[in-house]
Amino acid sequence: MSGADLPEIAAGVIKEALELGATDAECTIAEGEEFDANVRLRELETLKQARSRGAGIRVLIGKRTGSSHTSDLTREGIRTMVRSAIELAGVTTEDPHAGLPDVSELGSLPGDLALHCDDVATLDTAHKIELARRAEDASLRFDPRIVNSEGASFDSHLGRRVFANSRGFAGEYRSSYCSLMAVPVAQQGASMERDSWYSMSRSMRGLDSPEETGAMAARRAIRRLGSVKVGTCKVPVVFDPRMARSLVENIFEAVHGAAIYRHESFLDGKLGRKVASEKLTVVDDGTIPGLFGTSPFDDEGVPTRRTVVIENGVLKSYLLNTYAARKLGMRTTGNAARGLAGNAGIGHGNLFIGKGQTSPEQIIAGIQEGFYVVELMGFGVNIVTGDYSRGAAGMWIRGGEFAFPVSEITIAGNLERMLLDVEAVGSDLEFRSSAAAPTLLVSEMTVGGR
Amino acid sequence: MEFRDSIFAARFNITLRDLEKYLTEALSRGGTYADLYFEYLESSSISLDEGIVKGASRGVSLGVGVRVIAGERTGYAYSDDLNPERIRKAAQVAACIAAGPAQIAKAPLNEARMASLYPVVTAPTETSFAERVELVKRADRAARAYDSRVFQVHAVYADNLKQVLCATSDGIVTCDRQPLARLSVSVLARRPDGTPQRGHAGGGGRVELDFFVTDKTPEHFAGQAAREAIAMLDAVDAPAGEMTVVLGPGWPGILLHEAVGHGLEADFNRKQVSAFSGRVGEQVASPLCTVIDDGTIRGRRGSLNVDDEGHPTQRNVLIENGVLRGYLQDKLSSALMRTGRTGSGRRESYAHIPMPRMTNTFLLAGESEPEEILRSVPRGLYCANFGGGQVDITSGKFVFTASESYLIEGGRVTRPVRNATLIGNGPEALRYVSMVGNDLRLDEGIGICGKEGQSVPVGVGIPTIRIDSMTVGGTA
Fold first, then answer.
1. Nearest one of B319, B301, B378, B345 to B168, comparing CA atoms
2. What is the pLDDT of residues A312-364, one digit of tens each?
3. A68 touching B, CB under 8 A?
4. Shortest CA distance to B301 belongs to which of B160, B165, B199?
5. A287-305 tens-digit pLDDT
6. Quick check: helix, strand or coil at residue B225?
């Protein structure tokens, strides 16, 4: 990727903002190269390739904030962007908590975090298409009930992020990822189901084989065939690792600094209190080499770190950027996250539930009558009240084994109660994205059905 | 808008001859069709939280996407730089999908006649920031004045002006100027020491800023959001299981979007992966149901003069008296299915490949009085407002989450209930529609639809309807 001049552009943006009257400024420049190939029914279907870049600025004039962004990195485009931000700082309100991080908070993790691997860039197009073709082929050959396919895809992305501020911070890092995904369609009689499976890595050599990925996708689709709706009842519910990950995202929203200072989280005011089963420990760690939630510094130039959010059921920390920290009289946890537009928000690094002792098989074996969730649908999680109600599909558990597939039902409860009711934590933790969890068992939820 | 008046001709000095050259380049490896989509997007947003205008932001994004189709194959590349060398390079990259002798673009390009569904002289994006800041401040004041139990207000005003040019190897050029504005208000209320509850409202469209002054004011949206939050303070646990559900008019039309709309998009049906595949002509809903997707309603959020492939939008009948009539088509699927286009090819931006999408989707009004519909239900759920929804187009299962709903007891709306998700099966759910109200209402203009990672603005609408059986995901 070209563009060695990006740090220079960022420095120029800061300088220009200060000359125009900003008392502080920060600039983010992002550059990316994307490649997507999709194969369907063994033929190449789409091929997409492009590179893009853009810049964003946040300025402060005293305690007022303005921001702007552009994809036009010409001198003219940059000048317009800086002037816009300055002008906008004039229409916002003074906010005593606004501002950049203190100089003492700024910094970058040393050493190689293994975020970028050259093999993603060097692999030729034909080979990438071939990987997708092999993944789909493995799905289609897996079982005669795999009758159709939405295809298989290989995607890769190379990125570079440059960040500088008027308090002396300047840093940059490169990143890469590639992913392989298959989406087969299974059919038996009137029942048609699709499912997917994927593998994602920062390097080509870290990807699972296309054959494994395709077969797993097919297995998942077939497992859903002939699903039925069960009667309304209250039973133990097991979340597979993919669905347990969605609970990690729900916990993130509930410990999000802005949700706390706005008092719109059911975990507001619960620091130091027991909020979950003692089996539950939740950690955010942006420092683990090679993972998807890792970076040397957050989007305000603060080093990432390891933050224990929940320890053996006790709420230990919220996740904060500089602004939320000041509002709450705390220190930032290095969780500032932003695109190019607007002010910095809050994001997580690698946020995960620490693994337990029990294998997923043992967890299922211990359940007489229960529901194993493999898909959740919709947005029915209210972080303010903790009310939880989502569409679901999965497997019915009877006598410690999978009995039959289930769909068109809901599972409902309250997150506050669900976290306390976590009865078992699986030993099968894997980092397949920036949020991760092992299999989880919640002792009782309401299944809505017939 | 005429090409010579477009920003691409006037500011970037692009000529019709240039467009023809790029198209020829795109077809140099034998593609059967190519198009160029130029976009210049200016956007702004203002956010108020805790009574403070904490953020104001403005941005510009520009670029061009080049698409080449060769049979069922699509090649796509884009550039965020309108330098001729970069555009030509993108055309060459997209061209690689095809393998065959070069094709010739139909020259010369002709400008298509177009509708003017949003004749906005000054787009909100082009007005002074001070005026727009006033909108969020007014929303904040109004929500707080509504009830002393309101303790948090988060108001966001956002608008954009998208200027686009689409040139196709079929020989057509279209230019459009697409304004869009939205004000949303989120309110938290609580009793002393009680659990907070949230209310949300918002709206807008392809309108002038004046819309928020004379038509739907900040006070209107703030009042709705506050009313919902206050109502929810008394909420009891939602029921669980199958029951009769009555949907109120307007935004609950999201039912149609999820239950049938996505499943009728042509790409899924061409590939035979939709629960609706091959079912044109079949009864898929009660005879009371006629479902329309109409991209031509003046000023609406989901409306477009031309779709994002330069084809005029139109009024499409998806389901007529319960019978499935047709699919939403884009260029690629209509060619492969050998049928007409429906003006439904949409894309999020120049960086995205177009696909069939909805515009404004609604159910035609019936004859029942809304009160009569409620009176007919001994026990059930009345849903007045919704959050988002989702669908699995292959199995047909869809969900949507009620953010404001009430129990119906003895034909009357009684207690509010906590948020609950409703789940159904697309090809079956509308068979249970037994009454359709005479009060069709379109939503106020807040919809965003996501598909394969692309977001586009949409509208929905519905009259009050009675559904005899749906599964409600409560706990009681």
1. B345
2. 999 999 999 999 999 999 999 999 999 998 889 999 999 999 999 999 999 99
3. yes
4. B160
5. 999 999 999 999 999 999 9
6. helix
In degrees and rounded to multiples of 5, residue B431 shows phi and psi of -70, -25
Does A377 contact B151 at a Cβ distance shorter than 8 Å? no
Is the pLDDT at B274 greater than 90, yes or no?
yes
pLDDT of residue A342: 85
pLDDT over 70 percentage in chain A = 99
Kindly determine whether residue B397 and residue A377, on different chains, have CB atoms separated by under 8 Å. yes
Average pLDDT over residues B212-241: 97
Q: Is B84 helix (H, G, I), strand (E, B) or coil?
A: helix
Give the nearest chain A residue to B39 (CA atoms).
A71
- CB–CB contact B80 A52 (8 Å): yes
Q: Are strands B33-49 and B150-168 parallel, antiparallel or unpaired?
A: antiparallel
Report CA B75 to chain centroid distance, whole Å: 26
Residue B107: the pLDDT is: 67
Q: What architecture does CATH give domain B3-232?
A: 2-Layer Sandwich (3.30)
One-letter amino acid for residue A435 of the chain: A
Residue type, B94: A
Which A residues 369-388 touch B at CB under 8 Å? 375, 377-380, 382, 384-385, 387
**Burial class (CB within 10 angstroms; exposed 0-12, middle 13-18, buried 19+) of B2:** exposed
Domain ranges of chain B: 3-232, 240-473
> Distance between CA B406 and CA B427 in Å, rounded?
26
Q: How many CA atoms lie within 13 A of A8 on its CB side?
A: 5
| Nearest beta carbon to residue B188 from set A44, A84, A263 | A263
Average pLDDT of the residues in A133-141: 98
Helix, strand, coil percent content, chain A, rounded in steps of 5: 25, 40, 35
Per-residue pLDDT of B64-95, as tens digits, reads 999 999 999 999 999 999 999 999 999 999 99
Tell me if the bond preceding A405 is cis, omega within 30° of 0. Answer: no
Confidence bin at B104 (pLDDT 50/70/90): confident
CATH 3.40.50.170 holds for A6-222: no
Nearest to A281 by CA among A94, A169, A429: A429
Long-range contacts of A402-406 (CB under 8 A, 24+ apart): A402/A364, A402/A372, A404/A226, A404/A227, A404/A228, A405/A223, A405/A224, A405/A225, A405/A226, A405/A227, A405/A228, A406/A227, A406/A228, A406/A229, A406/A230, A406/A371
CA-nearest of B204, B195, B254, B237 to B385 is B254
Average pLDDT over residues A62-74: 95
Chain A residue with the nearest C-alpha to that of B136:
A92
Q: What is the ipTM of this complex?
A: 0.94
pTM (two decimals): 0.96
Give the Cα separation of B454 and B438 in Å (integer): 34
Q: Which residue has the tokens 């690629």?
A: B332
Q: Do residues A276 and A313 make contact, with C-beta atoms less than 8 angstroms apart?
A: yes
| Sequence ranges of the domains in chain A | 6-222, 227-450
